[in-house]
Amino acid sequence: MNSKFLGTGVALVTPFNTDLSVDHEALADIVNYNIDNGVEYLVICGTTGESVTITKDEKKAVIETISKTNDGRVPLVLGIGGNNTAVVIEEIKSTDLSGIDAILSVSPYYSKPTQEGVYQHFKAISEVCPVDIILYNVPGRTSKNMNVSTTLKLANDFKNIVAVKEAGNNMSQYLQLLKDKPEDFLIISGDDDLALSVALAGGSGVISVIGQAFPKEFSKMIRLGLKGNAKESYKIHYKLMDVVDYIFEENNPAGIKAVFAGLNLCADTVRLPVVSVSNELKQKINSFIENF
Predict the structure, then answer these.
(1) pTM of this structure
(2) How far is CA 232 from the centre of its chain?
(3) How wide is the angle at C-alpha 51 spanned by C-alphas 131 and 70, nearest 5°?
């Protein structure tokens, strides 16, 4: 089993200055904050990193800042995905993946391909990708579920497809994957609210949004869950439950950036069409931080 991706990975935000430029100083601070507080790996330019509204040059610069700050301390996963297979392949071929341990590739969105189309998409990616691949199933954003049978077929057919970030918020689907997966294939939770339950059921951990704001507590919770310590891990889960709900109440990543603003780690600036959270939600988030 690929132990690089056991435990807590965090889907890093891309901090912006008030003029909407990338705040590389805040990004470096967030990277250090997470590594110093125990997360196992970092995910760059995923959905939470506002990957759809940053340019190619900005993405390259973000990778450079994170890689330099990380300095080899923890594994790095890079988001490279989309609904145009040829474009995804071209990005993989043209990206310097030295220092990148795996890519996180989302199931094709908007186009609503059949399960065979999803399989062929990832087959084509697998055949050109020089690093490991973590599949990403998030039907709430793609509008199309990647069925258990499709995930398992990909897991069995391609050695460099090593894991799935499952984010369908469907415990039944998690359990089916855990029941039938190849022994060395990782089932990683993409649902912060279900992450502990998945870990206790035999999953490999989480790629988390809220984890990057409370990395010490969240990563400890997941490590306890992986050891089967339900009693102690749920104590932490219950402390974090409200803020997990808050960050997804209006929009991700607006919610997590509001938390970071409350922690004085970065501004809550986001790029359109995403907007900052409402004042009402901001007050709830700040109240949680003050009482945590």
Answers:
(1) 0.97
(2) 24
(3) 55
29: CB partners within 8 A, 6+ apart: 265, 266
In the residue annotation, 60 being an active-site residue is answered as no
Instruction: Identify which of 258, 222, 231, 232 has the alpha carbon closest to the alpha carbon of residue 243.
Output: 258
Largest separation between any pair of C-alpha atoms in the chain: 50
Quick one: how far is CA 177 from the chain centroid? 19
Q: Known catalytic residue: 234?
A: no
Check 144, 165, 282, 284 and give the catalytic one: 165
Q: Topology of domain 3-240, per CATH? A: TIM Barrel (3.20.20)
> What tens digit of pLDDT does each residue of 236-264 get?
999 999 999 999 999 999 999 999 999 99
Catalytic entry in 41, 119, 136, 246: 136
pLDDT digits (tens, 9 = 90+) for 96-138: 999 999 999 999 999 999 999 999 999 999 999 999 999 999 9
Question: Got the DSSP string for 61-114?
Answer: HHHHHHHHHHTTSS-EEEE---S-HHHHHHHHHHS--TT--EEEEEPPPSS---
DSSP 8-class letter at 201:
T
